[in-house]
Amino acid sequence: MADSNDFNAETVQQLAAVYGTLPIASDEFPAVAELLRALVADLQALRRMNVGGAEPASLDSPAEPSG
Amino acid sequence: MMQSQPNVIEIATAVRQRRVLAREVIDEALSRITRFQEEFNVFTAILPEIARQQAKDVDARVLKGDDLPLAGVPYAVKDLFDVKGVVTSRGSHAFRQQTAESDAAVIDRLTDAGAILLGKSNLNECGMGFTGENPTFGNCPNPWNPERISGGSSSGSAVAVSLGICGFTLGSDTGGSIRMPAALCSLVGLKPTYGRVSRAGTAPVSWTLDHVGPLTRTAEEAAVVLHVIAGADSRDEATTKRPAPDYTRDLPKQIRGLRVGIPQDWFFESLHPDVAEAVTVAVDRLAALGARRIEVTLPLMREVLGAHRAISYSESSSAYASDLSDRGGEFSPAVRTSLQTGQFIPAVDYLKAQRLRRIVRRDWTRVFERFDCLLTPTVATPATKFGESAVQLPKGATTILNAYLDLTLPFNLSGQPALSVPCGFSADNLPIGMQLVGAPFAEGMLLRIAHQYQQDTDWHHRTPPVG
Fold first, then answer.
1. Given the residues B153, B154, B332, B426, the one annotated as active site
2. Binning pLDDT at 50, 70 and 90, where does residue A63 land?
3. ipTM of the complex
4. Nearest-by-Cβ selection for A43 from B195, B306, B416
5. B358 and A CB contact within 8 Å
6. Range of A19's domain?
7. Hey, CA dihedral for B264, B265, B269, B273, is it positive or negative?
8. Cβ under 8 Å to A: B residues 52-81
9. Do residue B441 and residue A63 have CB atoms under 8 angstroms apart?
10. How confident is the model at residue A20 (pLDDT cuts 50, 70, 90)?
11. How far apart are the CA of B398 and the nearest CA of chain A, in angstroms?
12. Domain total in chain A
């Protein structure tokens, strides 16, 4: 996913073909692209953040003090 | 026989003392469904046969001397919860033939406690959304003003309590889906700590963000229900083994001297003026009860929002991948598009989100050591009209996605308990809620503060014009 955030119907169609995603009807490429643009905008702060050596949070009993 | 607004504790007490039969309570509740279902689309499935059989069983158990904490209390579950022999539609045409083979874990516990299941409540399709709109089962309007949304995705669960059909309901909360409709419908909505309540037999939206919890009129009722449904479950390995306390025990304790954290940013940055006013007055009320205000800042909010997006989109896309592949055409276009979008999130982003989650837990634990609960608005604006996609707030036009979920979703990521409690009404008589957030497993503290606040206010006694 590019940081430049230039998703459009055509780029989504190309990505879907390259990655072999689940089927997407051609008339829904624009809607997926619009959602992706919003999603990438929201991801910018997370992408810029330095998370150091933090491991991914555990998924079992994650609220326990050791989680 | 029954009050216009059923109370969990009063009903259970009356049934246990045989002042009323469970089957009489249920007949009354079923008549209210008949009165409201057509206008409000509260239920995706009404289950009178199950309800009447359960009522008969409860009356027999009471006669035998069983002590049932929820004896005869009518309830409903969001249609993501499995009920044996009943379709779990998830509010979607795509699951209209998926009949459950067993009950969800929480339903087992509620049946043991004497509660009586009336039906399955309406929701945004697959729990993905927050407006209460549903193209298959109809929109679920707000009882306080049917031109307005009830919130979601646990829309029917909120409306069923608001209309006095159920004493309580269960919802699920992935980004605010219990708390947000509770705020919009003047109810208490509790998202417990991740792992406190089993999700076994509940269709997933996003595994690591999903929580199950109650919607009620009061914090006291929520405490009674939580006490029944909380606890370890071998069917859900995320559940904690630490024992669940009696959540009603500390409710009578005053809150004098407790420290309430008031965030200085993010949560109060751009609110509808009526929301800002109501929450400010509520803070003053708690201070008058003896609580101490502590100014706090929660770090990493912008990163948390991105992490929630990455996780929720990725996990829901994965959870529904086979369904999308097999019968994608049976989902509504909005849900199908959302599920498809999740496929394009790189694993690197998903993992970074889960790494941030560990940092958030560590850093927020330190912040939360300074106070007993955090207090924020639950949502930035009262209920909007159906079809509105943005709302005008002091800092400009804001999408309803941001207005309704930005204040609740951080605590799905952190897994902390969070509760919405009614704290006022807008100038046009729409409910407003405030959110109380605690350290992990501090549900008792949140319920205590909410209960003491409700003892001092009367917002929860008001009923909607149609109720």
1. B153
2. low
3. 0.90
4. B306
5. yes
6. 9-48
7. negative
8. none
9. yes
10. confident
11. 13
12. 1
B 218-277 → A contacts, CB under 8 A: 237-242
Question: pLDDT tens across B230-280, in order?
Answer: 999 999 999 999 999 999 999 999 999 999 999 988 999 999 999 999 999
Q: Does A60 contact B at CB distance below 8 Å?
A: yes
Kindly determine whether residue B238 and residue A24, on different chains, have CB atoms separated by under 8 Å.
Answer: no
A-facing residues of B in 167-186 (CB < 8 A) are: none
* Residue A61 domain flag: no
Q: Hey, of A51, A55, A60, which one would you mutate to test binding to chain B, going by the most B CBs within 10 A of its CB?
A: A51
The reported pLDDT for the residue numbered A2 is 47
Q: In what order do the strands lie in the sheet with B211-216?
A: B43-46, B116-121, B74-78, B168-173, B211-216, B188-191, B418-425, B431-437, B373-377, B259-263, B292-296
Q: Which architecture characterizes domain B8-461 according to CATH?
A: Alpha-Beta Complex (3.90)
B237/A46 Cβ within 8 A? no
Q: Which DSSP helix (H) or strand (E) runs through A60?
A: none
A54 inside 8 A of chain B by CB:
yes
Check A62 against B238: CB less than 8 A apart.
Answer: yes
List chain B domain ranges: 8-461
The number of residues in chain B equals 467
